[in-house]
UniProtKB/TrEMBL annotation:
GO molecular function: ADP binding; ATP binding; hydrolase activity
Listed InterPro entries: Apaf_helical (IPR042197), LRR_dom_sf (IPR032675), LRR_R13L1-DRL21 (IPR056789), NB-ARC (IPR002182), P-loop_NTPase (IPR027417), Rx_N (IPR041118), WH-like_DNA-bd_sf (IPR036388), WHD_DRP (IPR058922)
NB-ARC domain ranges (all copies): 171-340
All residue ranges annotated as the R13L1/DRL21-like LRR repeat region domain in the record: 687-813
Organism of provenance: Medicago truncatula (Barrel medic)
Domain Disease resistance N-terminal intervals: 10-99
Disease resistance protein winged helix domain: residues covered: 426-498
UniProt KW keywords: ATP-binding, Hydrolase, Leucine-rich repeat, Nucleotide-binding, Plant defense, Repeat
An example Gene Ontology biological process: response to other organism
Protein name: Putative P-loop containing nucleoside triphosphate hydrolase, leucine-rich repeat domain, L
Length: 1151
């Protein structure tokens, strides 16, 4: 397939060079260097002659390897031309900056141009021998020229419309995920098998985001595997996806121990996407920590290889085949006709049905073809696709079929988009990227230059990206990235296509091996390991024409290759034509060599998350530098001559230690991204330096605003003219010795942002009032507002009049005592807070009254925490409220709205329920003297209630005689703490859907209800219930065959061993003993009958002396012991005196 598409974007590259040759700037630079203008003319004529045969050459390359080689030679020559032209332009501009007006002669440039012409003339001669004929129209209709579409469809993550004909499979998977475990010694796996483009990921995403799945699992994680199996990377990705910070190092055992501790006892869902290889032993090792989840945990695997299902020991397999013809047609119609009725276009409908019939039923191909044809309106264009040679499909190799269709779609791209698409070849298949990041890389490589369009490079990049997304070559990722920005990815087959397009010009170097590098390579992504890292870089340094280099560290600490200064000097001295260089995440990179100045053409430099603490002054001569990313570096300042980077557009200083801005930063007038501006005490960091930076867009954080002492300086900052800013963060220093409240109020009043602002955060402001612009309807587009620690303000502005506001968060504004009419807008006819969906008040220690009679028609979430003086009251009418959370508001007197679905009350004595919340699904009542009638309101006829957590966390015990659960038919999880009675008065056995019961700190409780526990109970956890533990012989658990997980945490007074014989049911697969300070011995007789137990977890039992000498159950696959000092010594691996009694257990963890 490589020969099918390679070289197809060369047309736009040649046209770009021709445009540069014809430009006035290029001619002026030629004259400046006293170069023969005749050479430029000759070069143009030669290129134009070649351009006339490109259309035929791009078609003939499929059949002739000689033509393909001719195109590769041409691509190499055009790269050389682009390189020379960039050098000429750069030197000319640098001379202008130095005010060197005298003409300069450069014989090197002239000789290189002559060599280039000779190379191209040879290609002109060869075209005749290859039989390439000139076209009367070299514009390649529909290929070369770019015309932006007014209506490009955008993809939607997990879009239900992309799932035609998969309803049965979707419900089959959901049923499996919600079902009980099969009792095996591992987390059940369901594998979705299908060839590339069959919709495996779309199906998995829709299941993953289903509301039933979200509510069922406590934790979810999604990881991507693809072509290289790397257990360390996958494990780290899972830990990150679960929301935990990573342990240092690359030791798989340590990482798995961390993961094991996090997920043990929790119900999780793990999705492992695109498994392609890895032996059974590899997967056994990777999945070791996942044999310890709570009952009900599941794993979804997607793969093209049916053998993987066997390797993963799948409990169930879902095979995705091609769509039925009717489903395929429906999917095609949704995209090709944009949801309209195809019968309205009879001339296209008949052709479309033939195309679908010819393609078969792979969803990715149908969706992509449909989106492509949506932008073509004539029957002739549709017929051209139908008759294309690249569309003769068979059923033997579906991956090849889809690949061929993707190639056909690629051939119908505008040629300018083809070049941008080819850049994808540098990315790994598991890579996610941001839209802005990709556009910056395109710009750095010159892919958005010299088009005949009255648009900026950024605007063109946006259009090209949207085009590729519209035909599903780019898809939105499941996970957002920084600042909740969407991340994107490319399907494996799309990456394969990009790599075949780029051929030898793009290369990835991975793994513990050294490989040869084609001398024409222009883009390299390299992973450096400690063993072969230097040899890899030696080979890279030989590729003089390299344009892009991405370097990654492989390994950790001593096992990691260090990019020392000498290595950098060799790189920077050899690779002088680099446009893009990234050392992202190279922790061992502690300094940047002065020789960075050799990279005169460098446009993109990423040093994020490196160990660099300072930048050399020599970096300031990089005239072409457009993007400098320093995210997470330990930099404290920037070089003094930083202002010389006059073409810098993007500067990311997030999470650095920068304490002041460099002098004259206002001269960087092209800046579009400046994440942080630190106001200092010296003149260079004065806020007025922002005056001329009117192209700023995205997010700007202005910190240390207390250093603005002159109102006039704030006026000069001219924030109002920065109309492209979306997010503004205004931060004052938290610790200040002087009271500058008057000055701060005057300054903030004149720091008026543009009305286009989307999000605003004000922190640690000490003025006595908020600025007028915050609440007078000026910020019409404001969606999100945060006011944090504005403790001197005694009144809010009329925020209710902000028409677009959806999220409002207010915390630690201690000066506020009453919220009343001023908050909504005096005498306004507009409904206050008409768009507000989320409202949060936190740590408002002075607030005592909320006067509210109107507004909030769209509010879905209300949170009030740590407001100890607040007495009254909640808004009376909240028609859309779904979730209400009130913590530690002991004086609050309020009633609960009747329409909520989730209620959380902690430490609220006087909050009561007037009317039954009929849709309530989750209720958390803690630290609250819940009035008995209010509890009855929740329980009576609460057929929708699924989770109930009641208890006291502030010393008050619970005792409700009428605690009756018989009406709670949907109740699945019940947690009770602080119960003061000796028995539970309600008939638990009637709660037939109850799966999980947690009892905590019920010190008087002696027994379960007489009629026993629910017949479907699968998890029982008992913590600090000494009387109940003491009467354990009366539990009657032995007959409870549904129980899978048992967990107890108590002191075990007057007891040497646990468990007693026939205490626990034989169906258990998990036993967890924790904080049992008096426990000495694990009783063998109590475990003998447990034939299904897989996990035994013992933690913080300091008196535990030994495990059963007779051994543990043969079914046990995992033994986890932590903080049991006597046992730890006795059972130490290979050295402990009793190690031989447990060494047969597959997984033993003793800490």
């Amino acid at each position: 397939m490589a020969a099918t598409v390679a070289g197809a974007f060369i047309s736009s590259f040649v046209e770009m060079i021709l445009e540069r040759l014809a430009s006035g700037d290029f001619r002026d630079n030629f004259s400046r260097y006293k170069l023969d203008v005749g050479l430029a003319d000759k070069l143009g004529i030669t290129l134009n002659s070649i351009n006339q045969v490109l259309e035929e050459a791009e078609q003939m390359q499929y059949k002739s390897t000689y033509v393909k080689k001719w195109l590769d030679d041409l691509k190499h020559a055009v790269y050389e031309a682009d390189q020379i032209f960039d050098e000429i332009a750069t030197d000319a501009q640098l001379n202008k900056l130095k005010d060197e007006s005298e003409p300069v002669t450069n014989t090197t440039f002239e000789s290189r141009i002559k060599e280039l012409i000779e190379m191209l003339e040879l290609l002109v001669n060869q075209k005749l021998m290859l039989g390439l004929k000139e076209s009367l129209c070299a514009s390649n209709e529909g290929v070369i020229s770019w015309k932006s579409s007014k209506e490009l469809p955008t993809s939607s993550l997990g879009n239900k419309s992309d799932l035609c004909g998969r309803d049965v499979e979707e419900e089959e998977i959901i049923k499996f995920l919600l079902s009980d475990n099969d009792g095996s010694n591992r987390t059940p796996v369901i594998t979705i098998v299908g060839s590339g483009g069959m919709g495996k990921t779309t199906l998995a995403e829709l299941v993953y985001n289903d509301d039933r799945i979200k509510e069922h699992f406590e934790h979810k994680a999604w990881v991507y595997v693809s072509e290289f199996f790397d257990a360390v990377r996958i494990t780290k990705e899972i830990i990150s996806r679960l929301g935990y910070s990573l342990a240092k190092g690359e030791d798989l055992n340590l990482l798995q121990q961390q993961l094991h501790q996090r997920i043990t006892g929790t119900r999780y869902l793990l999705v492992i996407e695109d498994v392609q290889n890895g032996s059974g032993e590899c997967w056994e090792q990777l999945l070791l920590p996942f044999n310890h989840g709570s009952f009900g945990s599941k794993i979804i695997v997607t793969t093209r290889d049916k053998e993987v299902a066997a390797v993963m020991k799948s409990s169930q397999i879902v095979h995705l085949k091609q769509l039925e013809e009717s489903d395929g047609w429906n999917l095609f119609v949704r995209h090709a006709f944009h949801g309209k009725n195809a019968s309205e276009y009879p001339n296209l409908e008949s052709i479309g049905k033939k195309i679908v019939n010819k393609c078969g039923g792979p969803p990715l191909a149908l969706k992509s073809l449909g989106n492509l044809l949506r932008m073509k309106f004539s029957p002739g264009e549709w017929t051209k696709i139908l008759d294309a040679d690249m569309l003769p499909l068979t059923d033997e190799d579906n991956n090849l079929n889809i690949y061929l269709i993707l190639g056909l779609i690629y051939h119908n791209f505008p040629s300018s988009v083809k070049r941008c698409f080819a850049y994808f070849s540098i990315f790994p298949k598991a890579n996610c990227l941001f839209k802005d990041q990709l556009i910056k890389l395109w710009m750095a490589d010159g892919l958005l230059k010299c088009f005949r369009a009255e648009k900026s490079e950024k605007e063109l990049g946006d259009e090209f990206f949207d085009y590729l997304e519209s035909i599903s070559f780019i898809q939105q990722s499941l996970y957002p990235g920084l600042d909740n920005k969407h991340r994107f990815f490319m399907h494996d087959l799309v990456i394969d296509l990009a790599r075949s397009v780029s051929g030898e010009f793009s290369l990835r170097i991975e793994g513990d091996r050294v490989q040869d590098i084609p001398e024409r390579a222009r883009h390299i992504w390299c992973s450096l390991d400690w063993k072969y890292g230097y040899r890899k870089l030696e080979n890279i340094c030989k590729i003089k024409g390299l344009r892009s280099l991405k370097v990654e560290e492989q390994g950790y600490d001593e096992q990691c290759f260090k990019i020392c200064k000498n290595v950098q000097i060799e790189l920077f001295s050899s690779l002088k034509y680099l446009r893009m260089l990234t050392f992202y995440g190279c922790n061992n990179l502690s300094e940047l060599a002065d020789e960075i100045s050799n990279l005169k053409l460098l446009c993109y430099l990423d040093l994020s998350y490196t160990g660099i603490t300072s930048l050399p002054d020599s970096i300031c001569v990089l005239y072409n530098l457009q993007t400098l990313l320093l995210l997470g570096c330990r930099l404290t300042e920037l070089p003094s001559n930083f202002y010389k980077l006059v073409n810098l557009r993007h500067l990311n200083l997030e999470s650095t230690l920068i304490s002041k801005m460099p002098e004259q930063i206002q001269r960087l007038t092209h800046l579009e991204t400046l994440t942080n501006f630190v106001v200092g005490e010296h003149s260079g960091s004065n806020i007025k330096e922002l005056e001329k930076l009117n192209h700023l867009r995205g997010t700007l954080c202005i910190s240390q605003l207390e250093n603005v002492t002159d109102r006039a300086d704030a006026v000069e900052a001219n924030l109002k003219n920065k109309r492209h800013l979306e997010v503004l963060h205004m931060r004052y220093g938290y610790r200040r010795t002087t009271d500058g409240s008057i000055v701060e109020r005057d300054v903030l009043e004149v720091l008026e942002p543009n009305s286009n602002l989307n999000s605003l955060i004000i922190e640690d402001y000490r003025g006595t009032g908020f600025p007028h612009w915050l609440g007078d309807c000026y910020l019409l587009n404001l969606v999100s507002l945060e006011l944090n620690r504005c403790g001197f303000c005694f009144q809010f502005p009329p925020l209710g009049q902000l028409p677009s506001l959806k999220e409002l968060s207010i915390s630690e504004c201690d000066g506020i005592e009453i919220i009343g009419e001023e908050f909504y807008g005096y005498n306004s006819s507009t409904v206050p807070f008409a768009s507000l969906e989320n409202l949060k008040f936190d740590n408002m220690y002075g607030w005592n009254e909320w006067l509210c009679t109107k507004g909030f028609p769209s509010l879905t979430f209300l949170l009030i925490t740590e407001c100890p003086k607040l007495k009254r009251a909640l808004p009376q009418h909240l028609p859309c409220l779904e979730r209400l959370v009130i913590y530690d508001c002991p004086e609050l007197e309020a009633s609960i709205p009747a329409n909520i679905r989730q209620l959380e009350l902690h430490g609220c004595v006087n909050v009561f329920i007037n009317e039954l919340p009929t849709n309530l699904k989750k209720a958390y009542l803690g630290g609250t003297r819940v009035i008995e009638s209010s509890l009855e309101q929740i329980l009576f006829n609460s057929s929708s209630l699924e989770q109930l957590n009641v208890g006291d966390y502030d010393g008050e015990n619970l005792e409700w005689p009428s605690f009756d659960l018989r009406s709670c038919n949907s109740l699945c999880t019940l947690s009770i703490s602080g119960w003061c009675s000796s028995s539970l008065p309600f008939a638990l056995n009637l709660s037939t859907n109850l799966h999980s019961l947690d009892l905590y700190d019920c010190r008087q409780l002696k027994s379960f209800p007489q009629r026993g526990l629910p017949s479907r109970l699968s998890s029982l956890r008992i913590n600090k219930c000494p009387e109940l533990i003491a009467s354990r012989k009366e539990w009657g658990l032995f007959e409870l065959n549904s129980l899978k997980e048992f967990r107890v945490s108590d002191d075990f007074e007057s007891m040497d061993s646990f468990p007693e014989e026939n205490l626990l049911p034989p169906t258990l697969n998990t036993i967890h003993l924790e904080n049992c300070s008096k426990l000495r011995i694990i009783n063998y007789k109590g475990l003998l009958h447990l034939k299904s137990v897989r996990l035994l977890r013992i933690e913080y039992c300091p008196c535990l002396e030994r495990l059963p000498e007779e051994g543990l159950p043969s079914s046990l696959s995992t033994l986890y012991i932590r903080e049991c000092r006597i046992v730890k010594q006795r059972y130490q691996k290979e050295e402990g005196e009793s190690w031989n009694t447990i060494c047969h257990i597959p997984d033993v963890f003793i800490y």
